[in-house]
Design goal:
By secondary structure, the protein is α+β, with helices and mostly antiparallel strands. Helix content is 34%, strand content 19%.
Length: 440
């Protein structure tokens, strides 16, 4: 098989990295940046600093290790500037085959041992599907039908960390970082993306974000459409049953203590209960994209209604929007629910297609972890964590930018064909099991 380096991949990689070098400041950071990005794309088993140093400079592992460790852990360069440069180079490629259609909010987790890595605690770990000791990062990705790119990322800092001065000092958490919920972090990322002029898309998110009335209201306040998953117990008003808005002086916040809540002839219903009430005629089979073997299609119902926001009597209902319900044939219960402010006249196929675009973030995280070592950072500090993630996204951005130049039969990562020359007898710390989670 032809070596794709002959087709100019290495030259394009050098040009790509040269642009990144231009935004990181001091000239002495150029070499470590090139080596770090290259190491993230090489086929080494674990892409933490030491194995990458051994792959890049087998004759001077210790010196290269110290150089890369300082660059990623202590380097005073800006993550925002680097991410902006990645966007400038990669988003035109993402948009080349179609416009930006979605902004995808999600979080990903990194299992850890110990208690010292910044932000680590026992919390829900999506990678393991249960509560584990881990770090969690919130991100925002921009997606077209053909590709997607993360454009923002931030570690979720639990309250136990945010309110512990000693742990903050050791991990060098910046003073302006305070506790924020994951939805609040996501709204900040979305507001920043708007300020940066990134092409708008419908906001997609899982039920951890979409079930929150404050998150959905924040998106409406920013002027963005959304199609977000919700949990089965979210309350909605049946079509045509929402009460009128409260008098202006009582529109914000709960009713004053002791004030009788006005009666209303109807009551909100949970979305899972509403799904069971719908007639057979409300359900239709809709396809949304081609899968690996056949077109993906399932049974859906689409209803226009208002979300009740809690018990539905103490706060105003939301504006009318779509409730989208997925209930596969043969399943005893509906499996998924979404609320969406996409246009009321949108065809069912388009509503489902755009809502289902959230699958792209799963591909992002899979490739970032498998191809670019997203979860392999072994440092403990705030700066190093975010520097590593930014560099992983930069490496991933290069893969996206090269996708259309690589034949379908070739490896997704064109640099993965270059087997690194490790020093004789080299075994990284933590061997023989170098694929386990890093000690915190």
């Amino acid at each position: 098989m032809k070596d794709f380096r002959d087709a100019g991949v290495e030259a394009r990689f050098e040009a790509y990295v040269d642009r990144l070098v231009g935004v990181i400041g001091h000239a002495d950071r150029a070499g470590p940046l090139r080596d770090y990005c290259t190491g993230l794309l090489l086929p080494v088993a674990r892409k933490s600093v030491e194995p990458m140093a051994a792959a890049m400079r087998p004759d001077r592992v210790s010196a290269k290790h110290q150089s890369l460790l300082h660059f990623v852990g202590q380097g005073g360069w800006s993550d925002d500037a680097l991410m902006a440069c990645v966007r400038e180079q990669v988003l035109p490629v993402v948009e080349r085959h179609g416009p930006v259609e979605a902004w995808i909010v999600d979080d990903t987790s990194f299992p850890k041992k110990g208690t010292h890595s910044v932000g680590v605690m026992r919390q829900y770990c999506g990678e393991r599907g249960k509560t584990e000791n881990c770090q969690v990062m919130v991100s925002l990705s921009v997606a077209s039908e053909a590709a997607s790119l993360p454009v923002a990322h931030r570690l979720f800092l639990p309250e136990s960390w945010a309110n512990d001065p000693e742990r903050r000092r050791k991990a060098k958490v910046p003073e302006d970082i305070v506790f924020q919920s994951k939805p609040a972090i996501a709204l900040d990322q979305i507001a920043a993306a708007l300020a940066q002029g990134i092409a708008r898309g419908v906001v997609l998110a899982d039920a951890g974000y979409g079930s929150g009335a404050d998150f959905r209201a924040g998106l409406r306040d920013l002027g963005l459409a959304y199609a977000v998953a919700i949990r089965p117990f979210v309350n909605v008003w049946r079509p045509g049953e929402a009460p009128p808005p409260r008098p202006r002086k009582h529109r914000r916040g709960p009713w004053p203590k002791g004030r009788k809540v006005p009666s209303h002839p109807h009551r909100p219903v949970q979305v899972q209960a509403l799904a069971r009430e719908l007639p057979d005629s409300a359900w239709t089979t809709v396809g949304w994209r081609e899968g690996s073997n056949a077109r993906l299609a399932e049974r859906f119902a689409m209803v226009r209604l208002c979300c009740a926001n809690g018990d539905g009597l103490r706060t105003d209902p939301s504006p009318e929007e779509w409730l989208l319900i997925e209930w596969p044939e043969g399943e005893p219960e509906p499996t998924r629910f979404w609320l969406s402010t996409l246009p009321a006249d949108l065809p069912p196929e388009e509503l489902v297609r755009r809502t289902k675009m959230r699958w792209r973030i799963e591909r992002d995280y899979l490739d970032l972890k498998q191809e670019c070592g997203l979860g392999h950072y072994e440092g403990r500090g705030w700066r190093g964590f975010h520097h590593h993630v930014s560099l992983c996204i930069a490496a991933y951005g290069f893969l996206i930018s090269q996708a259309e130049t690589i034949p379908p039969s070739a490896p997704r990562n064109p640099l993965s064909r270059q087997k690194p020359a490790l020093p004789d007898g080299y075994r990284p710390r933590g061997a023989p099991d170098t694929t386990t989670a890093a000690y915190a």
